[in-house]
Amino acid sequence: MSVRLKLVENLGEPDLHAENTALRQRIALLEEVINNFPGGILLTDKDLNVLICNDYQRSLQDYPEALFENNNLTLSDLFRFNAERGEYGDCNTEEIIAEKMALAAKHEAHHYERTRPNGNVVEVRGVPLKAGGFVTSYMDVTENRRHQALVADLALTDPLTGLANRRLLMDRFEQACARAKRGESFAVHYLDLDHFKPINDKHGHKAGDAVLLEVAKRLKSATRETDTVARIGGDEFVVLQSSANAGKSARLLAGRLASAISLPILFEDQVLNVTSSIGVTVSSDGNSTLDDLMKLADHALYQSKRNGRNGVTLNQPASEQLRMKRV
């Protein structure tokens, strides 16, 4: 049988033949249902002996047929097999078996997800039975989780470039403010591409998108993992730089960003040249709003444009400017 239903071979006396035949038919039907269930099924008795492990479960967990040649397979045997093949990661086999058997002994319902070494995500739901033991279902939810992660990612990123959008930028900004209140300053770099519209007009939006994608790639390459690069619309980008001490590191980063963007961009058989105007402001107290800092950085950006474009303007610290405005 494909499921491990442990049956008594001699079900009774000859005069009970009809009842036994009906029982065998019901068991055969149960086997068919279990093996066609769209998920893994594992049934154990009160002594945690494995009574049923359907075909789906064997395939899902990559169990070899040899594992089931012994009709006395126990839950502990399965745990040992999984531990020894690395299913639970780098662990002590005896310790992990003891831990899992202790949980099973509590005879409580359980629900969790586990990522297998092959990357698949399995949802596990165990229900304790009144007579003892468990019936546990296993569902492969890998694609569902990937889809959920994709939806979540789309909600926080720019659809064209994959950079952070305003929502994610705000979240990272709030984190930066919290760190600033503990003494870590940060900088906001506001970037605008110079003469971007003529590229779209002359070469088409496909070329414009190619430029934006390449600029996004270069901005990511020029920054650190702790920085946040966002596209906030059109050809406007914002870089939230962490640990921007006294403006020195902010100026250095702005220079790297400007240099990276100004390198020629190859589109099909044409070379496109684009530069950027950058405005930078530094916050050291964490008390400014994102709108406040964006306005200050935007003011500095337009100063760069008035100075001939393709340049960087660094404002005085945001806290000082805002203090002066409020006096």
Could you walk me through the main structural features you see in this protein, from its secondary elements to its overall organization?
- The protein is built from eleven helices and twelve strands.
- The C terminus is likely disordered.
- A hairpin with a 2-residue loop joins strand 7 and strand 8.
- It starts with 16 loop residues before the first helix and ends with a helix.
- Helix 3 packs antiparallel against helix 4, helix 7 crosses helix 8 and helix 8 packs antiparallel against helix 9.
- The protein has 327 residues and is α+β, with helices and mostly antiparallel strands.
Q: What class, by secondary structure content? A: alpha+beta
- How far the N terminus sits from the C terminus, by CA atoms, comes to 85 Å
Task: Tell me the β content.
Answer: 15-25%
User: C-alpha Rg, in Å?
Assistant: 32 Å
Number of helices: 11
* H-E order: HEEHHHEEEHHEHHEEHEEEHEH
Cα shape:
elongated
Q: Output the strand order for the largest sheet.
A: 2-1-5-4-3
Could you tell me the number of beta strands?
Answer: 12
Helix residue percentage = 40-55%
User: Could you describe the largest sheet, including whether it forms a barrel?
Assistant: 5 strands, antiparallel
Mean pLDDT score: 87
Q: Give the low-confidence spans.
A: 7-11, 318-327
